[in-house]
Amino acid sequence: MDANSDKTIRFDSFLAEATRYESLDAKLLRDYGFNFFAAGRDTIASVLTWFFWLVASHPAVEAKILEEIEKVFGAVDRGNYKILSTEDVKKLVYLHGALCEVLRLFPPIPMERKKPIKADILPSGHVVDSNTNIVFSFYGMGRSEEIWGKDCLEFKPERWINEKGGIVHVPSYKFISFNAGARTCLGKDMSFIQIKIVTSAILQNYRVRIVKDHSDEVTPSLSIILLMKHGLKVKITKRQV
Ligand code: HEM
What we know:
The protein starts with 10 loop residues before the first helix and ends with a strand. Helix content is 41%, strand content 9%. The chain is globular. The chain is built from eight helices and six strands. It is mostly helical. The chain has a two-stranded antiparallel sheet. Strands 2-3 form a two-stranded antiparallel sheet. The longest helix is centred in the first third of the chain and has 31 residues, at 26-56. The protein has one domain (14-238): CATH 1.10.630.10. The chain has helices spanning 11-18, 26-56, 59-73, 86-89, 93-105, 138-142, 145-148, 188-205; strands at residues 111-114, 120-121, 127-128, 134-137, 206-210, 234-238. Bound molecules: protoporphyrin IX containing FE.
């Protein structure tokens, strides 16, 4: 971040400022800091990896993303590299839809475990007590026909766009990739902005293609974060026109 700009807050200034509050000790601040880095690094890496895999294997989607960028911001001047701003990327509705599809089909945190602090009855009628582990799968929910319909396994950014060309509002209890309720992700809006800035910059200037024969190897790793087991092998070339 730019230390001279009054529009940005440096992370170290944030920590210095925060220490002025008596209740925040150094250990708590360290844990806050670690939490932000841990929460926002591999999750974003996961989305970017699956995004480029899905977009490269759906050329029609890639064409529509580029068409939208050009429609909103005019023809790309490839000699004059431009990074879109936070406000700019809010105008990219189709790209937003594509990202929601990536997050639905490949949620970076594929499953969660929760434990009630006391006995309760879930809305489903299940009785739980403080020894019950409740495991739920965001991955499974994102691919559930009951929730998303017959085309649940298709990568279809259009499902997020309404007839007026705006974003369809989907409640977070349905689009669960950032969790919902009290423990919802604090970095949700920031993630969309960050990913849109990065993907639009790369797509405008580079063509990303999957290395031949690598497609068969693309599979998720069995881990806390849904990374690609063998990584994503791509060939990157500069877009000419
Ligand atoms: C696409 C990227 C991301 C996804 C899919 C994601 C997903 C999630 C999920 C599922 C949770 C809930 C965990 C739980 O139930 O305990 C969570 C929590 C959280 N996330 Fe994210 N996250 C993303 C990016 C980020 C970023 C960039 C930040 C901040 C830099 C961030 C900060 C947090 C924090 C602080 C929490 C804890 C909230 C709380 O427990 O009160 N996340 N995230």
